[in-house]
Amino acid sequence: MPELPEVETMRRGIAHLAGLRIESVVFPRDTVRPLSMQPAAETMQQRLVGRMLAAVHRFGKRVAIELDERERVGREWLVIEPRMTGLMLVADPPTQTHLRMEISLESRQHPRLLFWDRRGLGTIRLLDERGLTAACGPDRLGPDGLVVTGDELHERLGQSRRAVKVALLDQQAVAGIGNIYAAEILFAAAIDPRVPCSRISLARWEQIAAATRGILAEAVRMEGSTITDETYKTADNRSGQFQLQHRVYGHEGEPCRQCGMAIRRIVQTQRSTFFCPECQWHHRRRCRRL
DNA sequence: CGTTCAACCTGGGCGC
DNA sequence: TGCGCCCAGGTTGAAC
After folding, report:
1. Could you give the 3-state DSSP secondary structure of residue A181?
2. How far apart are the C-alpha atoms of A47 and A74, rounded to whole Å?
3. pLDDT by residue (tens digit) across A220-266?
4. What's the pTM?
5. Which bases of chain C are contacted by protein, using any atom under 7 A from a CB?
6. Where in chain A are the domains?
7. Does the domain spanning A150-275 belong to CATH 1.10.8.50?
8. Tell me: the pLDDT tens digits for A89-116?
9. Is the peptide bond before A193 cis (omega within 30 degrees of 0)?
10. Nearest-CA neighbor of A19 among A104, A78, A106?
11. Nucleic chain B contacts, Cβ below 7 Å
12. Catalytic residue selected from A47, A61, A165, A247
């Protein structure tokens, strides 16, 4: 589920916990998958208890909770990657069964910070400065989608023969776009998702960048897209509202709101792509207001 | 090198 | 009711 707008909403929903100290940490379900948790639960607990949450950051589709300095280790970051079904919560989780992490904080109200993940594809990592750079630094993640420019997209993708929709999902090129927002961005920019990057002019990369910033900012303002409950909720258990603004994603067969033509669904690199075959035909280049 | 694909998981929805 | 299949907001390492 979570793409940039949802993860940013999670970040904002837990940011007020900064300044509090960790009282206890529980990993209720053994997530033994090697990649899902590093280091192992016991080590993780030892290194977390007693630490203060210094700040809450976002890198692409990841939340990074900065921890205060500790002797010998220095500053560390608890990096959570929700992937498909992970949720950062301060509210009660949808079920007890897929609760992956529960952090209790020292405060009168005894707030808890939870990571709940139905499918269990999400990851929890505790990283030092070097690890953070390796995982979330500029070698791994491109410019953030909220601020990416046409020049940057052109430079990073202009030579690629990949279809533009596929390329926009490449986190190394631009960070934060996922399957929903790729579709909505290309509709807003009136670009055919099948067009190879190498055939896109600089002017059109500017359009795509503007649409990226605009759609993502609007989606953040509306606290993300809740398509089905239990896949995405805000940290305090409210639904996002941007799904009401989706023009193509999930609307296969419905008439386009611009032109009336039926929205199509195709598959690109094993994932659904939704688009309007009229408004996003590659011989057309109308610029659309966001 | 760039690009594609199966695998990692659980669960909802649909047709039979 | 139940079974089998397809689908789902992401990323990775191996294979082309």
Report:
1. helix
2. 11
3. 999 999 998 778 999 999 999 999 999 999 999 999 999 999 999 99
4. 0.96
5. 7-13
6. 4-136, 150-275
7. yes
8. 999 999 999 999 999 999 999 999 999 9
9. no
10. A106
11. A 33, 84, 97-98, 118-121, 160-163, 166, 228, 269-270
12. A61
